[in-house]
Amino acid sequence: MSDSHGSWEPSARVAELLFTDFDGTAAADPDDVISEGLDGGYRERSEALKEVLRDPDEDPAGRFLACVALTRWADTVGYEAVVRAARSPESAVWRGASYDRLHGQDDTFGVLADAVGDSADMVEERGTATERLQAAEALLNLAGQVQFDRHISALLRRELVAALLPAVTAGVERGIARLAEEQPSYDLGLQLALMIAAAHRVDATWGLDAARMLIAVKPGERAVTELHDAIPETLQA
Predict the structure, then answer these.
(1) CA dist., res. 216 & res. 31, Å (int)
(2) 154: alpha, beta or left, given left = phi > 0 and alpha = psi -120 to 50?
(3) Measured CA distances, 70 to 37, 106, 172 (Å)
(4) DSSP output for the chain
(5) Which residues contact 222 (CB under 8 A, 6 or more apart)?
(6) What residues are paired with 106 via a beta bridge?
(7) Are 93 and 132 in contact (CB under 8 A)?
(8) Do residues 139 and 99 make contact, with C-beta atoms less than 8 angstroms apart?
(9) Rounded Cα gap, residues 1 and 118, in angstroms
(10) Which pLDDT belongs to residue 5?
(11) How does pLDDT run across 34-66, given as a tens digit for each residue?
């Protein structure tokens, strides 16, 4: 997980749930505990993590980690929390709980994108494929509003893009319109380029047209490089 809290210390129950492995040994990184839980350990800790997620008195960073864990474990409650946060991103209680090291920007929604995307391996066991799609769609709808950077790729697996193509295309169109008016503090152009490249594999005609529209609003070097690599036709005059 991204560099997030500096001197932040988890509460006792968050430390027990996400900073202690399933053998009872202290863990430095909650990602390790979350990954270990995929083998079935999630059953032991999910209910307690739901209590953390829902507790307004819990530290926001602890609630965020609970959401990440539940989402990665393909739990309905985790997906529902992602959808709620995406409806009103600026008021999400955990905004600012995680920052990327490179740009110093909030990347909480990027971390959630990874959790939603990577949970594909759990949805059959949990019976939550529909809820995962809903969470992915909610995040894709934010693509023009918040930083994802390359985390957006977690939502651009072919099966997700095929199922959610209208959300992808609408998000790109909103993002291009925004770039035509302003340059956000994060690399919106790259996010849009990654979405266009993924959509191009499903709808080549739309993808090429969108790529050219994005290039026309000067999205930045990373975006242009991504588009040229993914859609060589954009190199043609």
Answers:
(1) 40
(2) alpha
(3) 10, 21, 29
(4) --S--TT----HHHHHHHSB-TTS-B-S-HHHHHHHIIIIIHHHHHHHHHHHHH-TTS-HHHHHHHHHHHHHTT-HHHHHHHHHHHHSGGG-TTTTS-B-TTT--B-HHHHHHHHHHHGGGTHHHHT-HHHHHHHHHHHHTTTTTS--GGGGGGG--HHHHHHTHHHHHHHHHHHHHHHHH---SS-HHHHHHHHHHHHHTT-HHHHHHHHHHHHHT---HHHHHHHHHH-GGGG--
(5) 187, 189, 190, 193
(6) 99
(7) no
(8) no
(9) 14
(10) 46
(11) 999 999 999 999 999 999 999 999 999 999 999
pTM of the model as a whole: 0.94
Tally of residues, the chain: 237
Burial 43-65 (b: 16+ CB within 10 A, else e): eebbeebbebbeeeebbebbbbb
